[in-house]
Structures are given as structure tokens and as C-alpha cells.
Amino acid sequence: MDPIRNPYAPGAGQRPPELAGRDSELETFAVVIERIARGRPERSVVLTGLRGVGKTVLLNALRSAAVRADWGTGKLEARPEQRLRRPLSAALHVAVRELGHPQADDVDHVLGVIKSFAHRAVEPGAKLRDRWNPGIDAPAVSGRADSGDIEIDLVELLSDVGGLAADVGKGIGIFIDEMQDLHPDDVSALCAACHEISQSSLPVIVVGAGLPHLPAVLSASKSYSERLFRYARIDRLPRDAADRALQMPAKEEDADFTPEALEAMYVATGGYPYFIQAYGKVAWDVAPRSPITGSDIAVAAPEAESELAVGFFGSRYERATPGEREYLRAMADAAVAIAEDADEQLDEIESVPTSDVAVILGRKPQSLSPARDALLKKGLIYSGERGRIAFTVPHFGRYLRAHT
């Protein structure tokens, strides 16, 4: 098989050649766009799921749909060490420019409000060299979105941006990746702003993507967040969609997979989109000819697993300290113990009780809190319910048992 024609793309956030299994989410968002265009109230959207299920890819696809509808769009990636003002200002700057509003004075006014909002990222009186310049030529507007209270300022900012979009019959979409990493005060402000613009029927929505515990983060911030957002859980692909993700790109290159190969691929990948691309790329390269067979998958699997061990799993494992790695390995062992226990059943996400981890390590649960909290902050594990934890990366337990 010609490696130059290999269609598979195992990259972080890189759109696969066939976006299989996400039709429902795309169709739902198309309805959201159309309803907002007609002045109908709609909720903002939150995508949740494990690493490698394609949340970022889907987030980008939804943004593309908004762009095709002539919306103004901006995207940012939340980071634990960064507050919201700067990245949101940059995203809204892009969105306002995309609107194509005909009144330059109105546009400059809103850009000036964005600039004022951005300048409050530093304390008043800070030296000029410490101020961040958002690249906006319009002068800052005093007295609007610059109070220093992020909740007040964000409501004012999005209200002004939404009004500008309403003038031209378009919408504004703010796309936030890794949303669970927002600062708690910023989460609270964002929820309040979404609530306000929804009540005002302004054409602004937030589309966020994050780990499975993101709904709990939002709910802890504002109790009404459960009604404020439309939640969509992004999971691994069912068998037919996984087959399509492999076959459609191959057929574009006059190649195919045998039924046995497709079965072997689903067993190996578990239907996770990132793994499908990773295994698909290696299988293409090792296969001597089309169709790709079950034997080709058997040859490709060790190489694919080796590449994943370094780039996908290993890079995350290296972020943990020795004590945190012990905790991770104990989680993997606890999952095996539950699976082998006739009286217990391992759930779909392979979550384990924190008490079981403590038993395996021979420690008191309280003494393990620092390691657990550090892993939570690093995004390597999450807690879907009180007293239980799970890996944010699928098959991570299998990796740990094989390589540690």
C-alpha cells in the first residue's frame, strides 16, 4: 500500500477524513443556528467525553457550521493557569471582524468595549509594559465591561457583542475547548452571562467541550447551569460508524478492509476515534495490498500500540510524579480486581472507589488526597461521582498494566 496515499490522520484535534458517528450532534446544532437566526431562544452547548473521542474535532466542525451560516466565531482553549479575559477578548475580536457589520462607528464601539474588558486583565495603574495589547485599533471605551468584576463585565461585553450581531441578523459563537480548566470565578461569570443573553434573546451562544466532569463543574458554579446548557456526551463510536470511519477514506483511495479486518480493528480500538486513526494509519502502511486483512491488523497492532504508548499514553504518564504514578497504577489494579470479582461489576468508564486504591497501596485514604488532587488538576483522572475516580484517557489502565 502506498504510504503517500495513506488517508488516516491520528493527530490531536485533527479532523479525520470521515467524521463518522456525529451526524446527530451536527444536525442538532444546525437547528440551534437556525432557531437563533429567527430570534428564538436557545441554550448554549456543552460537549463532554474522554480524551480521544473527538471532542475537539466536533467542536471545530460545529464552528465551521456557524461560519457557513455567516456567523461571527471565535475559539479559545482554557488553561488552568490563565484567566478568561485575554483569550476571550482575542476570540471576540475575531468574531466581531467576521460579522461584517456595515457601520464602522458601531463596530469600533464594541471593539473598544472588548479592549476595555481585556485591559482589566491587569490591575489599574500597572505599567504600560505589563498591559496586554489585544491588537484592537479602536480606543478603549471607559465605563463599559471594565469594572473589574468579571461577572458584571462579561454580561456587559456579551450584551454589546450580541447587539452588534442582532443588527445584521447574524449570530456570535464562542467555542471553548478544555472548558473544565476555566478558573471557578470565570465559570461562574460565563454561566451568568449565558443566562442573561438567553433571557434577552440575544444571538450569542457558547459551545464548550471538556472532560466528563464538566457538567459537575458548571453545576457547582451556578445551580441553574443544568437548565442553561444543552449537554451532549461524546462517546466511542458504535461498530457501524467505526467501520465507516475506516472504509470510507480507504475507498476514496481504491482500497478496502475485509470483514475480519474490521472486526479485529474494532476489538483493538474499542471504537475510540483517535485509536481508529492510529491503528488505521499503521495498518495501511504494513498491508502489502488491498483489501487489508485480519492478518495485516495482527502485524500492525504491536507497532500501533508502541506508537500510542509513547505519544498518547506515555506523554501523559510522564507528567505525573512518582507518587502520582503509584496512584495511577493502583487505579489500574483496582479495576482488574473489580472485573474479577463475581460480586461486583466494572462500569463502562472503569471507575474505581478511592477506598480500593487506598487498600491496594496499604495507605489511609486521607493520606492519598494530595496525589489524587494533583492528578485531578493535571486532567489525568476525574471524579464522576463522590468516592469514585476514573481515567480521562481510554485504555490507560491497560497501558499502565503493560508498561509499568
UniProtKB/TrEMBL annotation:
Residues covered by region (Disordered): 1-22
Keyword Heme in annotation: yes
Domain of life where this protein originates: Bacteria
PROSITE patterns in the record: CYTC
Name recorded for this polypeptide: ATPase
Keyword field contains Iron: yes
InterPro entries: AAA_16, Cyt_c-like_dom, P-loop_NTPase
This protein's UniProt keywords: Heme, Iron, Metal-binding
Pfam family, one: AAA_16
GO molecular function, one term: heme binding
Taxon lineage: Bacteria, Bacillati, Actinomycetota, Actinomycetes, Micrococcales
Domain Cytochrome c: 166-332
